[in-house]
Amino acid sequence: MRLSRLGKKPLISHSLSVIAQQADKCRLRNIDPFGSHQASEFNTCCRTSTQFPLAEFIETENASRSLDGSIEQQIRVFNGTHIDWPNTRGWDILRGLQNDGGFNQAVEVVDAMGKQEIMVYSVVFSQLLQQCIKEKNLVAGRRVHSLIVGSGCEADYLLGSSLVHMFAVCGSLSEAKQVFCKLLKRNVISWTALIEAYAKSGHTEQAIQVYYELEKLNSELDGHVFVAVLKACSSISTLEHAKHINARIIERGLEFNVYVGSSLINIYAKWGSLDEAYTVFDRLSKGNVVTWSALISGCAENGHGRDALKLFRRMEQEGIEPNEVTFICTLKACSSLAALEQGKHVHFQIVQKGFESNLVIGNSLIDMYSKSGSLDDALIMFDRMPDLDTISWSAILGGYAKHNNYESALHVFESMQKVNVKPNGITYLSLLSACSHVGLFDEGCRHFKCMIESHSVWPTLEHYNAVVDILGRSGYLDEAEDLMETFPFGPNHVGWVSVLDACRFNGDVLRGKRCFDNVVSLDGRSALGYVLMSRIYSQAGLWEDYKKMQELRKCANLHKKPAKAYIEVDNYVHEFIVDDDSHPQAHEIYGKLNGLDMKMREVGYSRQPFIESLLDEEKDEAYCGHSEKLAIAFGLISTAEGTTIRVAKNLRVCTDCHNAVKLISKIELREIIVTDAYRVHHFKDGVCCCKDEYT
């Protein structure tokens, strides 16, 4: 691994320090930290006392530097002289805790202040909640909530809205609803928080229903409400709701609001309604880089990467100067297509515009290169960055994880700590993913334990799902099922799909039936559960059960997400689907495939037995990886001998195609890189870097 330069420690300002500095500045100017329009309501005192005692040692000039001891020592500041709050060094007490990494200690101090009847401004509680949201720390959030209740501030609707938002982000919808129901006064802010709570928890229909309730109240709906409810329109069944909301937006005169319009564009692009997305785009100023970036982002994030790249080129032709957001969205499109050459072209423009030193863009470049199968370029970019933050380190670690290289991922993890860069939730999620890919059960459990004990990173739903995946892939199906049933966040669709998939490659039919029932009960509109259960039956030779499952799926009118494969040749991205004959060179492509099939059979290749046993009309679905074979065949006939073939696929590579591509790499003497939805496969000389741990 090449990490020639150790990065600097990122500048992370503790939220309490930020608000303390803000309050100090505002006090000197005799203004409120949040502005006069919110001062009377938000920056309220939650205790009637106007004074608090400080320790004698705070009289010295070095008092703030003395706040590095135990929590007991820090609490000792609350004895001695009475001095007005917050016009003294009370802010310094909380600010000093940042040197101890003292978020938990800050909570202790506020707790101690409450017990000694020292007034606590709600602005302090707000900042503590923001830190809980940042860390997705549900345990700390509950503790702050109890402090708020004890202080008598729970009825503050602004604090209440923050509590609703915090519980939603931390994965506890039930507590978010409880707080909302207890609010004595509800305004558009608190309603918006509840809509966001439902949306973040995946309860999109409920989020939309809450919006309709708010609409009936004839409240002054603002842009924040519309942005929140549009985020809830995440399934195709909500598209009509989005159109209704669009009409209300026009009624409210917000159709020209760039941010509301951007949310609409994103929703329409997500569900392939590009005509509607362009209609909203045309309604806004075409010369506005924000709307261009919104449309590019909507395409890039929702499976329309080719359209995103076309828009970027069109934007250039029309003379619109791209900004940082435009470049980030375009790099995301390149990542989704493994379009390395176009990614390099965008990188060149970034250098020309002077944006390469931008930390977020640098992180996006690392991500683009690693997902395009070029870890060497990702490492070069990592070494060139003048500043590195946790996301930079997490990006390169995640790259190794996707490339099935746990040892290097672990080395990055250890290296970042040596230069005092603290890992965050994303870092640990990538590390757990690396363990899952190579079946490292003990290491995965150890990292999950250390994230809490060593770094106070509180696990989110995604971390628990990653552990479930590790358990399933390691053959611990009982433990995986037990963990799903005892989740602190309640049951979730992704986790049960993971256990169902584990039943597939462990051949556990009975457990698979139980998991299937849970998957369908949580999301009856998803075809994935039916597809996985069908494969379990087919692999077990239970063909009658297989046919019944297929009939159930068809009766429910559920369709599997179509498999697509992409390949970049001569700076143009070509798209292929199963049995695609629309390409201008289709005849040559199928001719190449037939020739390869004959050569592979000569060296012992045969299709999986369960595929050959299916009915003819069912083979295409089971043989879903055919799209990447078409892309690879096109690459072989369109590029010079020895050229690396890079293909992106929107779904997981199937077993049959994985076996076939290994042989093709050996027959054609080519390195073939296939990036699927889960990892990057490097095929060379008949071997894949995943060591066949691809299921």
Describe this protein's structure:
Helix 35 packs parallel to helix 36. The protein has about 700 residues and is mostly helical. It is built from 36 helices and eight strands. The strands form two sheets. Strands 4-3-5-6-7-8 form a six-stranded mixed beta sheet, with helices on both faces. A two-stranded antiparallel ribbon has the order 1-2.
Shape: globular
The total of helices stands at 36
Number of strands: 8
| Mean of residue pLDDT values | 80
Structural class: mainly alpha
- Beta-strand portion reads 5-15%
In order across it, which strands form the biggest sheet? 4-3-5-6-7-8
Query: What's the gyration radius in Å?
Result: 28 Å
Low-confidence stretches: 1-90, 96-100, 615-625
Q: Determine the fraction of residues in helical runs and give it as a percent range.
A: 55-70%
Largest sheet: 6 strands, mixed
| Distance linking N and C termini | 27 Å
